Amino acid sequence: MRKINFLFILLSVFLVSCAKEDPNPQAQIEGEWSIQHADYTVQYVEEDTYNDSADYSSSNGSIVFNADGTYTTTVIDDPDSEVLFPENDGTYTLSDGVLTLTYLLDGTEASTYYNVNVNGDMLTLSMDKQRLEETIRSEISATPELLVLFDMSLEEIIALFMEELVQFETNITFSKKASV
């Protein structure tokens, strides 16, 4: 019996280790996606946790991922809503479940990072503390005048911000628009 269990475990490990990776992970997100819902949780040291959620299913906000690695976003046409994505375009990559959106910020290249989950025709972009820190680092690097304004190094600004942040999570859910 032990031999059978050992062979089963060995076969399972072999099959998992031999699983083929998607040669083009970007293909799973190509197309136009309409925003449906967003929620976020934020907590700073010695403060209450703040949670918010919004239904955007009737909005016109969307993101389009093109096969050539470019993307375009349209903002939600609602003056009372918070802007989840600035209206812009740029390039994107998807690697190891992390989506990198690269764009121009004040004429300098910057990036925003999201964890990606695709489930059928639903796409969820999530940002946790790690992805937030990566995004802040990229955006502050793209705007060096902030370093001068605060008279601090990039690492000092990030440390100051992140040490006060206990919890951060944003989830933005999209549905895939049908191809025309």
Termini gap = 57 Å
Q: Compute the number of helices.
A: 4
Low-confidence stretches: 1-21
Strand content: 35-45%
The appropriate CATH architecture is: Beta Barrel
Number of strands: 9
Count of distinct structural domains = 1
How are the strands ordered across the major sheet? 1-3-4-5-6-7-8-9
Give the overall form.
globular
The profile of the biggest β sheet is: 8 strands, antiparallel, barrel
Helix content: 25-40%
Radius of gyration: 20 Å
Could you tell me the CATH topology label.
Lipocalin
**Average pLDDT value?**
82
Structural class computed from helices and strand pairing: alpha+beta
The CATH first-level class comes to Mainly Beta
* Element-by-element helix/strand order: HEEEEEEEEHHHE
Task: Give an account of the 3D structure.
By secondary structure, the protein is α+β, with helices and mostly antiparallel strands. It has one domain (24-176): Lipocalin, CATH 2.40.128. Helix content is 26%, strand content 42%. It is built from four helices and nine strands. Strands 1-3-4-5-6-7-8-9 form an eight-stranded antiparallel barrel. Strand 1 and strand 2 form a beta hairpin. The longest helix is centred in the first third of the chain and has 16 residues, at 2-17. The protein is globular and about 50 Å long. It starts with a helix and ends with a strand. 13% of the residues are buried. Residues 1-21 have low confidence and may be disordered.
